[in-house]
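Recall that a protein's primary structure is simply its ordered list of amino acids. Everything else, from secondary elements to tertiary packing, is in principle encoded there. The following example makes that idea concrete.
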Amino acid sequence: MDSCATGDTQEICWFCRKGRHEDCMKEIPTQGKSEGPHDCTFDTKLIPCKCNH
């Protein structure tokens, strides 16, 4: 079962982690808490998938 393990799994998309490299997303949306006025303000940015398939 997938867990929120730390490490380089954050930089590999869900499909590659499941072994479905043909469905690689190429870019992974990541949410980071922004410096907005509310607690629920998030910035979504894309990082490239770093899987070596």
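Residues 1-9 have pLDDT under 50 and may be disordered. The radius of gyration is 13 Å.
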